[in-house]
Design a protein that fits this description.
heterodimer; A: alpha/beta; ABC transporter transmembrane region fold; Rossmann fold; 2 domains; six-stranded mixed β-sheet; four-stranded antiparallel β-sheet; 22 helices; 12 strands; elongated; B: 605 residues; alpha/beta; nucleotide-binding (chain B)
């Protein structure tokens, strides 16, 4: 069943043990109840036959009740262990599996997802699933044990009474099933309003500077106020609309008691039912509906949690990059008739580019021309939809992704630093690098000096995302990391150099250190910086329109010439009033 | 308002804001509780009738039994209806409270100095405003009415029981008291509190570890460290799991005893009952009483299951409320009682010293002055440029003008009026800012520009867009000005976003303009247009510009050179260049950087 598959994140077997032990403990829990029934029967028998009350039997029953208490205690132990301990075990296992899958997903997929979402899936969604597997489902199934046993037992006792007792149950099920569409719709609207409010809040917090500057704080930021209001209304609506459905179903189930009383009275007076049987039914009737009612509540909760499981299942189904071969020795990179797009929009259309080993290739062109996409394809963020990319004459698709990435260093605009010391952040480039190697790399990346000025030098911890350093400093640490990695291919975004204009010269030096003697592919915005490239590839709307050296391209008077002229103009700009 | 309250008293204070609705809800909830007992009572009366006629069942009063069966149904239906109404009112109360709290929080946050946001991650604030606030719903909408419900049930039942037979009543109460005291002894006290705190801490740790693993994944992959990273994450997760298991093992016995006790009321009632019954076996009235107890006892214990996790849940909610209160107790920027409105618009910094207050973050961070004794005047209609190495304090100066932070020493004056004496709203109207990271709202482009002047006519908006050189690209978008930005809408390039924010500032047309020379991120092909837009914006304003590219501010009326929070030089480009100081050094470095080539072999400068 799909729901079972989803709520266990694709592993329904995990349900087996918690359910089995829950059923066992629930069966044991019926004991005291049956014993009390026995006692009531003994009392009634004496009144119906006129014989004195059999106190001996009653004392025996009392003794049995005390024994059953011990049995209950023992029965609860495995149930508890499997629902609480089991919960953490299951979640840990599932998280490990998801984390393992995550590291094999293509970079392109990872960078396109909001990391907050993924983190939430890893923690939040698994908490829901853990709750579902270890508490809700066992309770749901366990709760049904007593009604089912009671129903079967009562059928043997008197089938007419048993049927009348549960007469309204099918109606309750029909009500729940029949309104499931409505429930889903209201639930979906509620979920949407919740996500919308969360996004507006994020916007409010991210844009707080602008919001303050334009006098839009608090209630004046209407969008946020409205989002909170809508979320409130939807939450109330869920309560107002869905609760009556559940409550009507509960009423139907519990109304079985009255139906049974009517039928019982009729049969008793007609002499077709004996007193003891009627008494049995009445007493069962006071107990049998509580577990059914809670099962109903659990069921709707399971339904809600199923969405969390579905999200995880979908992520686990996301395909990982293929390829097992070790990357080849050579590092010529060739794009052959490559077509690639995000969704339906084609970004690269049938392009072919050759980048010989040891050369410096620049990709230029207006924004949206696809130059960054070329870099991403070479790093195998994605695989092309048509055509192929060769490295050392081997199709990238058959190369093991990590082995390929070992050949490539990337210097992009967004730098991520781990919550660790600066030294360890650089050491990330090469596992087990010595302190001397780290410092050497740092020196070449122009960051040794500023690191030594920090209170604890290389042992200075940097924050989540490296927030305690300036953009340029972070950038240089990432370059040191790349220098330490010493990969033969370097992919570079030239704009990173201007992230921190005050330290531009230092970043520029660091970059020039990094690219010595390697195959370099650079996306360039400022054309001046790539004048001396071996080959400049000019892209426009996903196609290669020109290529050659700077001098050749200037002579052609094409797109490159236009871009060059415009940039020359803006660099002469001065500010004055 | 007493802010010291924590725990249940604080929760009740929050709930008290919707007292009326909650009283209605509580009343209905107790009525519902009593109604839901009626079916049990009906069964008891039917059983009594049967017992009386046990020897000859055909004499039993059929009409009476049907009567009680009907009453059971009426009790059930009224119980359910009142339950619904009670739930509805408590939920309305709860969600209104949550709404109110969220508005209160976001308003409060809007009044805090921006420094708050550099010390607190938006993730933490967001979590507080979403999840911690949401948890209050559980207390207001569920726990409060449930508490009333259970209390009503227990009180009604105990009164009835004592009336019938005090001895059996005691027998019935013993297991309940036992169960609760075992549970309470485990959940309260210093050790339990410590455990809970430890639990929250380790939860936070694993959360941080997850964020790091997920966020850092692209880097991890690029450096081929996935296995290593995975192992680290795995270890963190396993240690979290082991702690949780240990934590849950602690509660195993007390939890089970609690559960078994609640299910064992009859085990205690029956022996006493049998003992009393064996003394006077002929007493049919007592037999009936015993029957009543056996039938009704679960009526008490079943609702009590709702409180299995009561203490733990309350502790969890309170922990969240403490975090909410922490935000609310942050000091907002002070507003003066008799605000003044400046008539002229030159800006003066008079002996300003300032340091980012890091006092409460960590003890290791040293308090360093970001600005010391800053004195300068920026005249109306003139351009003042702030230059200096990174960390020299240029951006700090810009951030002090809109009171994103308040200065500690000295004062900032606009047209002779201290900015502390200006209403924040007025101050914001006087000053326009263009930040380096321009921020656009999730809305249409039109609305995004309109933010600058909410009552502007469409013509004014278009004119501003034209002046900011963005009219052309906007017209090219599928829905023009009505194009939605972000989240499934259109994403603009960095340069385009900046031009939209410049259009916003042009529309606002305030007499003072503070801007970060924002062209650094613009695409080169947009850069020229961007510069034209800025020129338009600067006409006849008091302009303070944080400059990165020295060439662009060569012609400024005044250049202020900062280094480590001090003004080291002041003057025009020509004068400063001749002075052979820091500015000269920067200028030389700058001209070098402009000549940078990505090149193998020779390294430049």
């Amino acid at each position: 069943m799909k729901i079972l598959y989803n709520i266990t994140a694709g592993n329904p077997k995990k349900l087996r043990k918690p359910i089995v032990f829950s059923v066992i403990s629930n069966v044991i829990n019926i004991l005291p109840f049956t014993l009390v029934m026995q006692a009531v029967k003994i009392i009634f028998e004496s009144y119906s036959t006129g014989a004195p009350i059999d106190t001996y039997k009653l004392w025996l029953t009392c003794g049995a009740l005390f024994l059953s208490m011990i049995a209950m205690f023992l029965g609860e132990i495995p149930a508890y262990r499997f629902s609480f301990r089991g919960a953490y075990m299951v979640a840990a296992e599932g998280r490990a599996k998801l984390a393992e899958h995550l590291r094999k997903l293509p970079l392109g997929y990872l960078t396109s997802r909001d990391p907050g979402d993924l983190g939430n899936m890893m923690m939040g969604d698994f908490t829901l699933i853990e709750h579902c597997i270890s508490h809700l489902m066992p309770q749901l199934v366990g709760g049904l044990v007593m009604p089912i046993i009671a129903f079967i037992g009562l059928l043997f006792l008197d089938w007419r009474m048993a049927v009348s007792m549960f007469a309204a149950l099918p109606i309750a099920i029909l009500i729940i099933a029949g309104t499931s569409k409505l429930q889903r719709r209201v639930g979906k609207r509620h979920m949407e309003s919740k996500i919308y409010a969360a996004n507006r809040l994020q916007e409010y917090l991210n844009g707080i500077g602008t919001i303050k500057a334009y006098n839009l704080t608090g209630e004046r930021f209407v969008r946020l106020e409205k989002a909170f209001r809508r979320f409130m209304m939807e939450s109330i609506k869920i309560e107002g609309f869905l609760q009556p459905i559940v409550l009507t179903a509960i009423a139907c189930i519990r109304a079985g008691l009255t139906v049974m009383v009517f039928v019982g009275t009729h049969l008793l007076l007609g002499g077709e039912l004996n007193v003891i049987t009627f008494v049995t039914f009445l007493i069962v009737g006071t107990r049998v509906f509580d577990p059914l009612t809670s099962a109903l509540g659990n069921f709707s909760e399971v339904h809600y949690d199923e969405q969390a499981g579905e999200r995880i299942v979908n992520l686990l189904n996301e395909p990982i990059l293929p390829g097992e071969k070790i990357a080849p020795e050579g590092h010529d990179i060739i794009l052959k008739d490559v077509t690639f797009g995000y969704g339906d929009i084609k970004v690269l259309k049938d392009i072919s580019i050759e980048m010989p080993e040891g050369s410096l290739t620049a990709l230029v062109g207006p924004s949206g021309s696809g130059k960054s996409t070329v870099l991403k394809l070479i790093a195998r963020f994605y695989d092309p939809q048509k055509g192929k990319i060769l490295i050392g004459n081997e199709d990238m698709k058959i190369i093991e992704p990590e082995s390929l990435l070992q050949k490539v260093s990337m210097v992009f605009q967004d730098v991520y630093l781990f919550q660790d010391t600066i030294g360890n952040n650089i050491r990330f480039g090469k596992e087990g690098a010595t302190q001397a190697e780290v410092e050497e790399a740092a020196k070449r990346a122009c960051c040794h000096d500023f690191i030594m000025k920090l209170p604890q030098g290389y042992d200075t911890p940097v924050g989540e995302g490296g927030s305690t350093l300036s953009g340029g400093e972070k950038q240089r640490i990432s370059i040191a990391r790349a220098i330490l990695k010493n990969a033969p291919v370097v992919l570079l975004d030239e704009a990173t150099a201007s992230l921190d204009p005050e330290n531009e010269v230092e970043i520029q030096r660091a970059i020039n250190e990094l690219i010595q003697g390697r195959t370099v592919i650079v996306v360039a915005h400022r054309l001046k910086t790539v004048r001396s490239a071996d080959n400049i590839i000019v892209l426009d709307e996903g196609k290669v329109v020109e290529q050659g050296t700077h001098d050749e391209l200037i002579l052609q008077k094409g797109l490159y010439y236009d871009l060059w002229t415009i940039q020359q103009k803006s660099s002469r700009w001065k500010m004055s009033s | 308002m007493d802010k010291k309250k924590t725990g249940i008293p604080r929760l009740l204070e929050i709930a008290g804001e919707k007292r009326g609705l909650l009283i209605v809800s509580g009343t209905l909830s107790s009525i519902s509780a009593v109604c839901m007992l009626i079916p049990y009572i009906s069964v008891y009366f039917i059983l009594a009738e049967l017992l009386k006629n046990a020897s000859n069942p055909s004499l039993a009063n059929g009409a009476l039994m049907i009567h009680w069966g009907t009453i059971a149904l009426i009790g059930l239906i009224s119980g359910i209806i009142t339950m619904y109404l009670s739930g509805l009112s408590s939920h309305i109360a709860a969600y209104r409270i949550l709404y109110g709290l969220r508005i209160k929080l976001s308003t409060h946050i809007g009044k805090l100095p921006l420094g708050y946001f550099t010390q607190t991650s938006t993730g933490t604030i967001k979590k507080t405003m979403e999840q911690n606030v949401e948890k209050i719903e559980n207390f207001v909408a569920h726990q409060l009415p449930d508490l009333v419900n259970v209390l009503a049930t227990v009180i009604v039942m105990i009164i009835a029981m004592i009336y019938l037979n005090p001895l059996l009543t005691i027998a019935c109460i013993i297991p309940l008291v036992l169960g609760y005291s075992v549970q309470a002894s485990m959940r309260t006290g210093e050790k339990a509190k410590e455990n809970l705190k430890y639990y929250h801490d380790s939860l936070e740790r694993i959360n941080a570890s997850t964020v790091q693993y997920v966020r850092g994944m692209p880097v991890i992959k690029v450096f081929g460290q996935t296995v290593h990273s995975f192992r680290k994450f795995y270890e963190d997760m396993i240690s979290y799991r082991d702690y949780c298991v240990k934590y849950s093992d602690q509660f195993q016995n007390s939890y089970i005893i609690f559960k078994v006790m609640l299910g064992s009321t009859m085990t205690f009632i029956l022996p006493i009952g049998v003992y009393l019954l064996s003394r006077e076996p002929e007493n049919i009235a007592f037999a009936l009483t015993l029957l009543f107890f056996l039938i009704m006892a679960p009526g008490i214990s079943v609702p009590m299951y709702k409180f299995t996790n009561f203490a733990a849940t309350i502790a969890d909610i309170s922990e969240g409320v403490e975090r909410i209160d922490k935000i609310l107790s942050e000091k907002p920027i002070q507003e003066i009682k008799n605000p003044q409105v400046p008539k002229r618009f030159d800006i003066e910094f008079n002996n300003v010293s300032f340091s980012y207050d890091l006092a409460d973050t960590s003890s290791t961070s040293t308090r360093k002055e970001a600005l010391s004794n800053i004195n300068f005047k920026s005249k109306q209609g003139k351009v003042t440029a702030l230059v200096g190495p990174s960390g020299s304090g240029k951006s700090t100066i810009a951030n002090l003008i809109p009171r994103f932070w308040d200065v500690e020493e000295g004062g900032i004056f606009i047209g002779g009026v201290n900015i502390r004496s200006i209403k924040t709203e007025d101050l914001m109207n006087i000053v326009s800012f263009v930040f380096q990271d321009s921020f656009l709202f999730y809305d249409t482009i039109y609305e995004n520009i309109l933010v600058g002047k909410p009552n502007a006519t469409p013509e004014e908006v278009y004119a501003a867009a034209r002046a900011a050189q963005c009219h052309e690209f906007i017209e090219k978008l599928p829905q023009g000005y009505d194009t939605l930005i972000g989240e499934g809408g259109t994403y603009l390039s960095g340069g385009e976003e900046q031009r939209v924010s410049v259009a916003r500032a042009i529309l606002k047309n305030s007499p003072i303009l503070v801007f970060d020379e924002a062209t650094a991120f613009a695409d080169p092909e947009n850069e020229y247009q961007m510069q034209l837009a800025l020129k338009e914006l600067m006409q006849n304003k008091t302009v303070i510009v944080i400059a990165h590219r020295l060439s662009s501010i060569q012609d400024s009326d005044q250049i202020i050179v900062l280094d480590e929070g001090h003004i080291v030089e002041k003057g025009t480009h020509e004068k400063l260049r001749a002075a052979n100081g820091l500015y000269r050094k920067m200028w030389d470095a700058y001209t070098d950087a402009g000549e940078w080539k990505i090149q193998k072999g020779g390294i430049i400068a």
